[in-house]
Amino acid sequence: MEHLTFDYPAQRAVTTRAHVGVVGSGDLEVLLSPAETGGALSAHVVVRTSVDGYSHIWKSVLDRFFSRYDGAAQIEINDFGATPGVVALRLAEAIEAAEQGDGA
Amino acid sequence: MNTIATARSAPMLLDSFIELPARERARALLDAGTFRELLGPFDKIESPWLPLQGVVCQADDGCVIARGTIDGEPAVVAAIESAFQGGSIGEVSGSKIAAALTMALRDCERGKIVRPVVLFETGGVRLQEANLGLAVIAEIQAAIVALRRHVPVVGVIAGMVGCFGGMSLAAALCSYLVVTKQGRLGMNGPEVIEQEAGIEELDSSDRRRVWQLIGGEQRAATALADQLVDDATDAVRSAVHAAFKLGLPAAHRSEQVDMFLERLARIDPASVTPETMRDVYNPSSAQHNARKEQA
C-alpha cells in the first residue's frame, strides 16, 4: 500500500461534498469535500493505493484533472487497482455529484 | 433520468437489484426520500486493522446503515457492500450492524417499533480481523434474536456473493428471508469445501451443481428461505414490505429444533440429492408435486 499526497492551486471555494465509487477490484472510492480554509485557495489530494510504484501516473492523471478543475477541494482517494481511465471517470463523477449538491 | 424512463417504450428492462451498490440497495428498499445514512463515509469510521496488513480501507468499512421508513413505519436497513473485501465482516462493519440492530431493539422495548432489514452479501468474517469479526457476528446474532420478539427481522440475500460463514447463521435467525435465484446461502462456500474436503466432494467450478445445492431457488424450495423473487428492485422491495405485513411468524425456524433434527435424521449423506432435500425439508411442496404427477 502506498500513501501519496498532491496539492494544486484553486480559484474558487467548494461548498458541497460528494462520495462516489467503491474500494473493489479495479475500482476506487473518491471523497470530495471543501478544503480547509486559511490562506490562499488550494486543493489537496490524498491517495491510498493498493498498487505501489505508480506515483508518476497518479501525478499525470491529477495534473490533467486539475488543468480543468479549479475548486478548492479536499479529495481523498482509496484505490484498489483502478486504471487511469477509471480514476479520471470517478473524479469527474465526484465533481458532478458535488455540483448537483446531492452528496451525502 | 425521469424523461428517459417515460420516453422508453416496451420491452422494459428489469431494474436489477443485484447491480446496485449497498447504499443504493438500502435507498431502494426505504420509502422514497426517507433515506438517511448513519455513520456514512465522511464519518470515516474505518477498519484500524487493514492498513497494518497493507490493505486499503473503505471510508464506511463496506457497510451502510440507513434509517428511513418502510410503508410509513420507521425502519433501519443494514446493507453490506460486496465489492469491498467480499462483503466480509470486520470489527467496524460488524459493529455498525450490531449497533444499528441494538438501537432498533431499544426503540422496540420502549414501544416504538422499528422495522429492521439486513442485506446479507458476505463471505462471513473478515479473515484479517479474525476473532474481532467473529465476536461482532455473535453480537449481530444476539441482536436479531432479541429483536424478533418485537418485530419481524427481514433478511435479503440477493447475490452475487451470497451469504456464508457466521453470517449465514445470522441470516437463518431472521424471521423472513428473501432470496433471488442468483443468491446463495451456506455455511462453507464451495471453494472452501473443495479445498478442505477435496474435489471429489465438490467441484466448486461446477456452478450448476453449486446453485442446485445452495442457490436461492433450492433454499426457497427447502423452506430455508421464505420468498424467492426475481432480480428486480421492485420485486425485492415488495417482498420486504410484504414480509413486515405478515407480522411475526408463529415460530421462528431456530425455535423448531426437534422438527429440523427429525428432518436431518431422514437425510442419508450417501444418497442425498437436491431433490431428496426438497422432499424432506418441504413436505407440503413434495405432496403438491406428487399430485401434479398423478394428474
TrEMBL record, chain A:
Modified residues (O-(phosphoribosyl dephospho-coenzyme A)serine): S25
Pfam families, alphabetized: ACP
InterPro entries: Mal_deCO2ase/Cit_lyase_ACP (IPR023439), Malonate_deCO2ase_dsu (IPR009662)
Species name: Paraburkholderia fungorum
Lineage of origin: Bacteria, Pseudomonadati, Pseudomonadota, Betaproteobacteria, Burkholderiales
Main subcellular location: cytoplasm
Alphabetized NCBIfam families for the sequence: malonate_delta (TIGR03130), PRK01220.1 (NF002293)
Name this polypeptide is given: Malonate decarboxylase acyl carrier protein
Subcellular location: Cytoplasm
Post-translational modification: Covalently binds the prosthetic group of malonate decarboxylase.
Keyword ATP-binding assigned: no
GO cellular component entries: cytoplasm
Keywords, ordered alphabetically: Cytoplasm, Phosphoprotein
UniProt keyword Phosphoprotein, yes or no: yes
UniProtKB/TrEMBL annotation, chain B:
Membrane is among the record's keywords: yes
Domain CoA carboxyltransferase N-terminal residue range list: 1-252
Enzyme category, top tier: lyase
Biological process per Gene Ontology, one example term: fatty acid biosynthetic process
Keyword terms: Lyase, Membrane, Transferase, Transmembrane, Transmembrane helix
Matching PROSITE patterns: COA_CT_NTER
Listed GO MF terms: acetyl-CoA carboxylase activity; carboxy-lyase activity; transferase activity
Enzyme Commission number(s) from the entry: 4.1.1.88
Protein name per its UniProtKB record: Biotin-independent malonate decarboxylase subunit beta
Organism: Paraburkholderia fungorum
Top-level taxonomy: Bacteria, Pseudomonadati, Pseudomonadota, Betaproteobacteria, Burkholderiales
